[in-house]
């Protein structure tokens, strides 16, 4: 099916105006000069021009009909795509919720088994139980990421802002991954540079989820070495850094780590079960807090540093400090090359999600 441009229609209308002017000019010649030839000339011109105009009008009518058909087809295709997208989101939500309950039970009973609630267990059984716990934890994280994506698409990503302790939140996230770090024999450290940071407003569960994601990634992608979680107060802001000595991030990959469904080449060979949504969700959580998140790395096998920066004077809008946001899936996320303040650091590649 042909598609006609507006330029061609304008071109036809232009010639209609030119032909009309020529015909009128011939009629004026006939009026002022009483001559048979001048009488016949405008009649012939008018007849030919009328035939030409009728053809042009037929072409334009046909063009309009074809454009209307195209518009109708595009509209129907868009409706079908929206319907399929809603069905996909509903399926993800239902499937994730159904998986959540058994996974929670498995985690709870395995944790009790490892804690010795059911009595002493042999080292062999303990090793198997730890593997079950870790595998279950990874699957639970995957399910939570899928649920978050479905909530974002549906506009149901709800934040509940209250005054909380950032040190306590970060420590809870750190402690929840101690088993994973111990299993890999990684040096696992938590540091707070201030004796006490005054509580400020943020969604504790969402920030904890973002930190767990960053710390979990640091452990997974550090074959051996050290992972450190650092909390520090900087004026009116608080910065949480997750530093590792792992595989690092290649220069050509660092600028899209916060985009959805994006995973590095080396990462795919280490953990094949990931879908590349964790950092994307982290970025949306921090954005809702009007904070900043970025990553720094000196390259492959040189480790990496993920940094979250939150405002202590952040004041959410909305009734009862509850905010429901819809974050659009924007492929063109603003990535800032250079350091967190727009300045390049020698030998260091960094990318920030604004």
**Structural category:** alpha+beta
CATH architectural type of the largest domain? 2-Layer Sandwich
Low-confidence stretches: 1-11, 324-350
Look at the structure and give the CATH class of the largest domain. Alpha Beta
Q: What fraction of the residues are assigned to beta strands by DSSP?
A: 15-25%
Mean pLDDT: 75
Give the spatial strand order of the biggest sheet.
Answer: 3-5-6-8-7-10
Number of helices: 8
Domains, number: 2
- Based on DSSP secondary structure assignment, what is the total number of beta strands? 10
Give the radius of gyration: 33 Å
Describe this entry's structure for a reader.
By secondary structure, this protein is an alpha+beta fold. Helix content is 53%, strand content 16%. The protein is built from eight helices and ten strands. A six-stranded mixed β-sheet has the order 3-5-6-8-7-10. A two-stranded antiparallel ribbon has the order 1-9. The chain has a two-stranded antiparallel ribbon with strand order 2-4. Strand 5 (226-234) and strand 6 form a beta hairpin. Helix 1 (6-32) packs antiparallel against helix 2 and helix 2 (36-115) runs antiparallel to helix 3 (123-154). The longest helix has 80 residues, at 36-115.
Short description:
The protein has 354 residues and is an alpha+beta fold. The protein is 53% helix and 16% strand.
Attribute tags:
Heat Shock Protein 90, 8 helices, 10 strands, six-stranded mixed sheet, 354 residues, disordered N terminus, 53% helix, 2 domains, 16% strand, alpha+beta
What secondary-structure arrangement, pairings included, does this model have?
Layout: H1 6-32, H2 36-115, H3 123-154, E1 157-160, E2 162-164, H4 166-175, H5 178-183, E3 187-192, E4 200-202, H6 204-220, E5 226-234, E6 237-244, H7 265-270, H8 278-288, E7 292-297, E8 304-311, E9 322-325, E10 349-353
Helix pairs in contact: 1-2, 2-3, 4-6, 6-8
């Amino acid at each position: 099916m042909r598609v006609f441009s507006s330029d061609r229609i304008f071109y036809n209308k232009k010639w209609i105006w030119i032909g009309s002017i020529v015909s009128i000019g011939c009629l004026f010649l006939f009026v002022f000069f009483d001559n048979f030839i001048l009488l016949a000339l405008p009649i012939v011109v008018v007849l030919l021009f009328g035939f030409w105009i009728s053809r042009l009008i037929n072409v334009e009518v046909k063009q309009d009909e074809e454009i209307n058909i195209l518009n109708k087809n595009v509209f129907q295709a868009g409706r079908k795509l929206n319907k399929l997208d809603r069905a996909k989101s509903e399926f993800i939500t239902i499937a994730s919720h159904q998986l959540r309950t058994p996974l929670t039970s498995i985690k709870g009973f395995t944790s009790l088994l490892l804690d010795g609630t059911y009595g002493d267990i042999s080292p062999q059984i303990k090793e198997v139980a730890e593997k079950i716990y870790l595998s279950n934890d990874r699957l639970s994280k995957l399910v939570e990421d899928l649920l978050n994506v479905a909530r974002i698409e549906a506009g149901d990503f709800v934040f509940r802002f209250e005054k909380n302790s950032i040190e306590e939140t970060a420590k809870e996230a750190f402690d929840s991954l101690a088993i994973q770090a111990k299993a890999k024999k990684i040096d696992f450290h938590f540091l707070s540079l201030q004796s006490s940071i005054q509580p400020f407003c943020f969604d504790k569960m969402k920030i904890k989820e973002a930190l767990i994601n960053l710390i979990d990634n640091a452990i997974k992608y550090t074959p051996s070495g050290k992972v450190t979680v650092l909390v520090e107060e900087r004026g009116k802001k608080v910065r949480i850094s997750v530093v590792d000595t792992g595989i690092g991030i290649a220069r050509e990959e660092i600028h899209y780590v916060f985009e959805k469904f994006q995973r590095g080449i080396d990462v795919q060979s280490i953990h094949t079960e990931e879908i590349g949504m964790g950092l994307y969700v982290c970025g949306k959580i921090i954005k809702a807090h009007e904070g900043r998140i970025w990553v720094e790395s000196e390259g492959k096998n040189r480790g990496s540093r993920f940094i979250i920066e939150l405002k202590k004077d952040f004041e959410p809008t909305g009734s009862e400090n509850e905010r429901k946001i819809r974050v659009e899936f924007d492929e063109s996320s603003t990535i800032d090359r250079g350091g967190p303040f727009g300045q390049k650091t020698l030998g260091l590649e960094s990318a920030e999600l604004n």
